[in-house]
């Protein structure tokens, strides 16, 4: 998979993409991730990428010219399955979306900034608009890092245990069950006996029930989705 990230602050996103699982995925050649400074595509002599809004509202707006040039430059080199814009008014990102994106080959992520982007960019180039939550960040760089991390870890060969990602929270509209490790007893608190039983069937049933109960209590919205799938 290749992910091209277009941003006005490449230095803000470099570190999260150069550590841990993402770093290993890049070193193994399982994921290619490239950062592109939007200012490099500006025709303005001062490398400006924003301008005042015609509506005379507060805040600056990302201009269409450098964005078009950046996207068209990349598209000349390869086909892109998705061109994503990170924006607070986009579709809320979830595990199912991450799963679908992990099946793509080439993705562009345009990081939102300022008061937003010229609507013509969204109309002409963007295929998917994504928000990582109902709040506003300084820019879309952290959102792009979140999307990239959640997608890349799903690629075959990235995790040493590929089944691990399949049992994460949200995969089946359920939260993960509680987990334990050694020692079996710590300051009077014991690991549930069933986890020490060696009976895989009973353990799996216990985990499923715990996941259901935790989801029902902590995320009733997800629980409704899960129950809908069971009908």
From TrEMBL:
Gene3D superfamilies this protein is in?
Answer: 3.40.1280.10, tRNA(m1g37)methyltransferase, domain 2
Give the record's keywords alphabetically.
Cytoplasm, Methyltransferase, S-adenosyl-L-methionine, Transferase, tRNA processing
Species lineage, top-down?
Bacteria, Pseudomonadati, Bacteroidota, Bacteroidia, Marinilabiliales
Q: What EC number(s) are associated with this protein in UniProt?
A: 2.1.1.228
Reaction(s) catalysed (UniProt annotation): guanosine(37) in tRNA + S-adenosyl-L-methionine = N(1)-methylguanosine(37) in tRNA + S-adenosyl-L-homocysteine + H(+)
The gene from which this protein is expressed is trmD
- Which family does the entry's similarity section mention? Belongs to the RNA methyltransferase TrmD family.
Record domain tRNA methyltransferase TRMD/TRM10-type: where: 1-225
Q: How does it assemble?
A: Homodimer.
The answer, when asked if S-adenosyl-L-methionine is one of the entry's keywords, is yes
Subcellular compartments: Cytoplasm
Q: Give me the Gene Ontology terms describing cellular component.
A: cytosol
Role according to the record: Specifically methylates guanosine-37 in various tRNAs.
Which top EC class is named for this enzyme in its record?
A: transferase
GO MF annotations, alphabetized:
tRNA (guanine(37)-N1)-methyltransferase activity
Give a single Pfam family match.
tRNA_m1G_MT
Give the GO biological process terms.
tRNA N1-guanine methylation
Q: What is its main location?
A: cytoplasm
Q: What is this protein called?
A: tRNA (guanine-N(1)-)-methyltransferase
What is the species of this protein? Mariniphaga anaerophila
Mind telling me which PANTHER family this protein's record contains?
TRNA (GUANINE-N(1)-)-METHYLTRANSFERASE
Binding locations of S-adenosyl-L-methionine = 112, 132-137
């Amino acid at each position: 998979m290749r992910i091209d990230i277009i941003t006005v602050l490449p230095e803000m996103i470099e570190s999260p993409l150069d550590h841990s699982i993402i770093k290993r995925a890049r070193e193994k050649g399982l994921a290619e991730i490239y950062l592109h400074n939007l200012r490099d595509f500006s025709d303005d002599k001062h490398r400006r990428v924003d301008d005042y809004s015609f509506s005379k509202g507060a805040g600056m707006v990302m201009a269409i010219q450098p964005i078009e040039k950046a996207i068209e430059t990349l598209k000349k080199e390869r086909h892109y399955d998705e061109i994503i814009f990170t924006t607070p008014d986009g579709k809320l990102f979830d595990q199912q979306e991450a799963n679908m994106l992990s099946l793509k080959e080439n993705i562009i992520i345009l990081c939102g900034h300022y008061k937003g982007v010229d609507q013509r960019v969204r109309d002409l180039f963007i295929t998917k608009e994504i928000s990582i939550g109902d709040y506003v960040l300084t820019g879309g760089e952290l959102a792009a890092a979140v999307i990239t991390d959640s997608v890349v870890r799903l690629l075959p060969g990235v995790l040493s245990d590929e089944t691990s990602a399949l049992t994460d929270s949200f995969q089946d509209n359920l939260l993960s069950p509680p987990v334990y490790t050694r020692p079996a007893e710590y300051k009077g608190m014991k690991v549930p006996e069933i986890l020490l039983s060696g009976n895989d069937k009973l353990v799996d049933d216990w985990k499923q029930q715990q996941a259901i109960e935790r989801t029902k209590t902590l995320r009733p919205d997800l629980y409704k989705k899960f129950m809908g799938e069971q009908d």
